[in-house]
Amino acid sequence: MCVKVGDEIVCGEAQDVAGKDALIIPSLDEKDQISTPVDVIVPGEDGTLADEEAPETRDVSGSPDERVIEPEAPSQIPPDQINDQDQNLPGEEPTEQIPGKQTVIETKVIEKGPEQGELITVKRISGLGLPEFSVKEGQKLSLKSIKFIDEDGDPLTVTWPYPFNSQGEWQTELGDAGKKIVSVKVSDGQSTKAQRLSIIIEAVNKAPVIDIPEVIEAQEGTALTLEPKITDPDGDPITVAYSGFMDKSTYVPTYDDAGSHEVVIAATDGYLTARKTVTIQVLNKNRKPSINEVSIPRVTAGEKVVISVDASDLDEDSLSTLFSEPFDSKGVWQTTIDDAGSHLVTVTVSDGESQVKKSASFTVLRKNKPPVMEPIPNIHINIDKDETQEIKITPIVRDPDGDEVRILYTGWMNNSSKVIIYNDGGVYKATVSATDGQDAVSQTVTITVNRVPQIIYD
């Protein structure tokens, strides 16, 4: 069996593949032999080969990226704009077609490139005779380099295959990578010529994809961990970096971080870098106030007690203080004589949101009652000549609090008794004092020593 490849006739073993005739050429591997449709040439009765236009067929291998694309609306080409079929493209050398060779013979860049979005046309001629055009994803592919002629000078109608527009151009997009077999047709109104083309869209490196909510809430004092889902469409290894409010994925916001902050997550595959800005909304966390000290002065029953409180708040919130009874709102208590003893007070400090309490014990000292001394009568004593007498003062003293009492004597007497003689005649004063160690009472006693009159005999 023989086929026409371009202007060459190639013969080989014919096989039926999925209901289609395929030519087995020894130098081609099995995939290329099956996946590339060819025009079958059937020998005539006189031994010559006649052309039979091959129908547009799908790739029998079933590859989704190698398929025949249905044509779009045709475009008219005036005769004066038709190029000669035998002319090569500008700057091209004539290409040689070698039957049985799959190796690409030449590659031509028709338009300058290869920056993405520029008009790029690459033409390859393979041994099977299918012109190949290739660009990278995202670039524009043009088939304008294909020339159409009519020896009779008839006007021609060109039908460009989908997805090419009426100008023979296709703006590819990311995701279009793959190989397609399409057919361009030209007609003079009486006959139609079709040419299958191999369209190759080469995959380009794609940047990593970062998936994470745009706004994340955190709380002061609580650890925050960012967990972005980062993937690379090409399966490349990814390096991730953080900048801005956080320089790594985990951070514990301080109590000064309340508010809105931005973190930039950058993911790179070594070629392209994707960035995403995440807003971190740090919520304020109230910190309880603290009571550093409760100071209560030493008081005696009947005196006023004033509590002093030292409290602070790390958030510098305004604080209010409450006191348990019997203290008033200002921490003041006027005691009575009966309030002597041990007491407990609870102080509460609040910042309006949180509060703390602290209890303190204190003692109200008993107010001392001085000793009670019964009145001591004055002393009058008569003494005769050559007579001695003892004067005694015996005060009666008691202490209302039951305290121990000590009695002191001052003045003419330095203790409770004194021995006198006739010559001690006179009037004297002695002071008797009684003390319980805190308070004292005293009385002054008048002592009169009267000398008895004497009778003298001459």
Name the features.
458 residues; Immunoglobulin-like; 4 domains; 1 helix; 41 strands
Topology:
Blueprint: E1 2-5, E2 8-11, E3 13-17, E4 20-24, H1 30-35, E5 39-43, E6 49-50, E7 68-69, E8 71-77, E9 107-109, E10 119-120, E11 122-125, E12 131-136, E13 140-142, E14 156-161, E15 169-171, E16 178-187, E17 192-202, E18 209-211, E19 215-219, E20 224-225, E21 229-231, E22 239-244, E23 250-251, E24 259-268, E25 273-283, E26 290-295, E27 299-300, E28 304-306, E29 308-312, E30 320-323, E31 332-334, E32 341-350, E33 355-365, E34 372-373, E35 379-383, E36 388-392, E37 397-398, E38 406-411, E39 417-421, E40 426-435, E41 440-451
Parallel strand pairs: 7-16, 10-13, 12-17, 19-25, 27-33, 35-41
Antiparallel strand pairs: 1-2, 1-5, 3-4, 5-6, 8-14, 9-11, 11-12, 13-15, 14-16, 16-17, 18-21, 20-23, 22-24, 24-25, 26-29, 28-31, 30-32, 32-33, 34-37, 36-39, 38-40, 40-41
Description:
This protein has 458 residues and is mainly β. The model is unreliable at 1-128 (pLDDT under 50). The longest helix has 6 residues, at 30-35. Strand 40 and strand 41 (440-451) form a beta hairpin. The chain is built from 1 helix and 41 strands. The strands form 13 sheets. Strands 7, 8, 9, 11, 12, 14, 16 and 17 form an 8-stranded mixed beta sheet that branches. A 4-stranded antiparallel beta sheet has the order 2-1-5-6, with no helix packed on it. The protein has 4 domains: 34-39 and 51-202, no CATH class; 209-283, Sandwich (Immunoglobulin-like); 290-365, Immunoglobulins (Immunoglobulin-like), CATH 2.60.40.10; 372-451, Immunoglobulins (Immunoglobulin-like, Sandwich). The protein is rod-shaped.
